[in-house]
Each structure stands twice: as C-alpha cells, then as structure tokens.
Amino acid sequence: MIPKNIPFLMNPRLCFVAAFLAIQCVLVAETFEPRNDYGMPLEPKDTVLHGAGQAMAQSFRDYTATVGPELTPVFFMDYAGLNQFWTPEDAAKALKGTRKLLAEHPKLMLQLGLSLTTDGKPEEVYDEAVAAGKFDVPIQNLCDELKRLGCPVLIRIGYECNGSWNGYKPEPYKKAFRRIVEALRKNKVNAAAVWCAYPVDLAQAMPYYPGDNYVDWWSIDLFFPSDLTDKKTTAFLDAAHRHKRPVLIGETTPRTVGVGKGEGSWNEWFGPYFSLINKNPGIKGTSYINWNWSQFPQWSDWGDARLETAPDIAERYRAALSSPLFQHQ
C-alpha cells in the first residue's frame, strides 16, 4: 500500500522520471575508470580538475553561468609571454584577468600558458636567451607576481613545445624550462611545472622533454575530433603513465565542429571527449575553451565553441560534468 501522504509516489509519470534519473546517475558513476594517483604537486586524488578559459575573464564568467554554480571550474586558463614580466608593474598587467577573477572566486586556481615567444611568432622566439640567463629578471618578476596572486598554479612552460609555429629548439627549450622551474622552486611558488606537447608522434615530442626531475605534470592539447581517438594521443597517455606523471588536457575545443550541430556536435566531438577522459585513469585535469573562434580570421573555420549559444549541448555537457569524477569549486 502506497502511503497517501506521499503524493509524489502516486503519480506513475513522476515515478518513471525519478527512476530514469536514478538510472542515469548510476550509469554516469559507473562509466569512468578510477584515477591513478602519482603524488605530484597539485595533483587531485581520485578526480579530474575542471577548468575553463581562455584568457578573457568574461569568457570564463559566461561559461560559469552556463554550467551553473555547482559546477564552477576549479581553475581559469590564462596566457602570458615571459617577455611581459620585465617590471613588477608589467607583471601585474600580464595577469590582470586572473586577478579580477580571483576577487570573484577566492578559491580559484590558475592554469597558466607561459610563452617563450613574442605574441606566438616563431621568428621572435627567445628560448635560447632564457636558457642563457638573459631573462632572469622577468623570471623573478613572474615568481613574485604568482606569489602575490596567492593561488595554486599549473604552469605550462613553453606550451606546445614541439609545435613548429613556436620555433623552439629542443636543447635550449629544455634548458629554459629547467631554469624557470629552478626559480619557481627557489622562490617557493605554489606551482606545478607542466610539460605541454602538441599531439604528434611521441618520438617527435620527446626530444623536448626536460626530464622527470623538472616536470610535475604532462599536458596535451586536443582540438580536432580525430585527436580524441588517435593512437598518438593514446601513446602520449601511456608514456605519461610510464613516467608516473598525471596528465592535463591543457587546451581543448571542438575545432571545425562547434556547438551548433546539436546531436551531430555531441556525437562528433563532445561524446568522444568525455569518453577519452572517462577511459584514461591518468588524466587528472581538463581545460575547455569556451570561445567563438569563427570571429577571428585566422581561426574562421574552427567554429563557435560557446556553450551558452547551444542549450541542448550545454544540458548534456552539464550532465557529463556532474559525474563524481570531476572536481569543481
């Protein structure tokens, strides 16, 4: 006999909905692999850090409003060039977006892409100068500014190090990476040093590897749908595990797909994206770029990745992020 003081149970339709939602919650909880824990700096235990950006504070706000307060990202993605830190005043300007968001979210972490080129121009690369000690003043100002911010930092030093568009050379890049890490440690900055590669053959990326003594996390940037299922990505994840390092998806966005195809966008990019994370226990952080790429001529064919413009995709995205696998603020 159904108690009459519980009208909810007397409505068959509501009972069906409740049962369906309960099943969905169980399925979400059961579809991910338990995480590997390597004991590295800023590595979460048993979860995946949820982050978003890129660079513009308003983009982060729009994303956060879309996913909702319970799914507020753990970290904000920001970018700067080491050549922006020649004075303390310049250093403060370089990370002003992060400073604004920290005022709104005091528990926010920073995921910083630190470039060793001028505005990403390979003809103006300065990894050799950093390796030779000519950028020690900016490195010190960087350390001081990060300590002033007071938040934990995942710092991708010379991110996408093997990308031809950066122009880095393996030996000076590795020396520059080590010099920056030594300064971060000497200054006791609450940071994890992240080595970030672009998804190509692992043999092409490893000449840029600074060594386990200097690298806390590995990172890979994934854009094309094929990146999410490619053997090269799997090889990178396997190698990170052999080195006992957690993996950060440093940048990811539905390149050439966007959010405007409804079910097609989900099946082509978002579904494989969450599947990749769920199935790979070494992935401990991910960073979604919530941006309209198509407004910029150089990225006109990338599409619009803003979740707030696609309620159907946003709803499924929120459901996937609600898995206990992901860590939010």
Separation, N- and C-terminal Cα atoms = 43 Å
Shape descriptor: globular
The total count of strands amounts to 11
How large a portion of the residues is in β-strands, by DSSP E? 15-25%
Cα-atom Rg, whole angstroms? 21 Å
Q: Can you give the mean pLDDT? A: 90
Coarse structural class: alpha/beta
> Which series of helices and strands comes N to C?
HEHEHHEEEHHEHEHEHEHEHE
Helical content class: 25-40%
- Low-pLDDT segments, ≥5 res: 1-10, 12-30
Q: Please tally the helical runs, counting DSSP H or I stretches of 4 or more residues.
A: 11
Largest sheet: 8 strands, parallel, barrel
- Major β-sheet strand ordering: 1-2-3-6-7-8-9-10
Features:
two-stranded antiparallel sheet; 11 strands; 329 residues; eight-stranded parallel barrel
What does this structure look like?
The protein is an alpha/beta fold and about 325 residues long. Helices cover about 40% and strands about 20% of the residues. The chain is built from eleven helices and eleven strands. The strands form two sheets. Strands 1-2-3-6-7-8-9-10 form an eight-stranded parallel beta barrel, surrounded by four helices. The longest helix has 19 residues, at about 10-30. The radius of gyration is 21 Å and the shape is globular. The termini are far apart.
Quick gist of this model?
With 329 residues, the chain is an alpha/beta fold. It has helices spanning 12-30, 57-67, 88-94, 96-104, 127-131, 136-149, 170-186, 202-205, 231-242, 263-279, 311-321; strands spanning 48-53, 75-81, 109-115, 117-118, 121-125, 153-157, 191-197, 217-222, 247-252, 283-289, 326-327.
